[in-house]
Design a protein that fits this description.
- There is one protein chain.
- This protein is 37% helix and 24% strand.
- It has nine helices and ten strands.
- The protein has a six-stranded mixed sheet, with helices on both faces. The chain has a four-stranded antiparallel sheet with strand order 2-1-4-5, covered by helices on one side.
- Strand 4 and strand 5 form a beta hairpin.
- The N terminus is likely disordered.
- The structure holds adenosine-5'-triphosphate (ATP) and magnesium ion (MG).
- The site of magnesium ion (MG) has 3 residues, from helix 1.
- The site of magnesium ion has 3 residues, from helix 1.
Length: 259
Amino acid sequence: MTAVPVTEDAVPPAGNPLVVLENVNKHFGALHVLQDIDLTIGRGEVVVVIGPSGSGKSTLCRAINRLEAIDSGRIAIDGKPLPAEGRELARLRADVGMVFQSFNLFAHKTVLQNVTLGQIRVRKSEKNAAEQRARDLLDRVGVGSQADKYPAQLSGGQQQRVAIARALAMNPKVMLFDEPTSALDPEMINEVLEVMRQLAQEGMTMVVVTHEMGFARSAANRVVFMADGRIVEQATPEQFFSNPRSDRAKDFLSKILHH
Ligand SMILES: Nc1ncnc2c1ncn2[C@@H]1O[C@H](COP(=O)(O)OP(=O)(O)OP(=O)(O)O)[C@@H](O)[C@H]1O
Ligand SMILES: [Mg+2]
């Protein structure tokens, strides 16, 4: 492959974009859930997405991973448009790690098997190499000693950390988190947020839908506020939390910060 020469002019204004959404629209029947979404996420950037229930945050994440097809617009990951289907899609999807509210681990497989499966099937890794990588990642998220257990034998916080390790095992370019701590008991929330903070510090590009405003303040480079399928406001966490501009954001913040 020959390298494409990069001129000054070719460098996009946002710096070094990894995920680019342009004019993305999506309907569920009559409901216009994503409306003219333009969003560029830079390499190594941590973007926290917040907004009222039903505003389209999960749909946005699912669209980036193409778990949800869009009606119009463009989504590109690392310069490549998201393919509609097939082998290319599987490959591109593997570049996007996703962690959901419910951990979605395979119940009948051990923790180790959960973390090796995708590496072997999609990334075509050797079993030994996959297991080594899985053990390293499980250690990194603090559940190395649980490798031979089944998911049901772990706490919610441990299961979620396994889910993070499983996503990381694919060596993704970007990680999407959709309310990763909202199904957890309070005492387990921090252990998961801590793993995410560490990932952010290591330079992982992350999109995080969360109600954890402490995490947003301490780990996000940017807060994206959605309401009614639109991005209403984007700002640094300091700007957003101390001086939200839109009435929708002011209203939302007054509800979540004072309850
Ligand atoms: N598969 C679907 N079919 C029909 N409508 C859907 C579907 N998925 C989501 N919706 C609707 O689309 C809108 C946006 O949903 P979405 O799950 O993206 O919101 P959200 O911001 O993630 O909300 P929450 O904070 O409650 O998770 C909601 O009105 C929801 O009811
Ligand atoms: Mg959601």
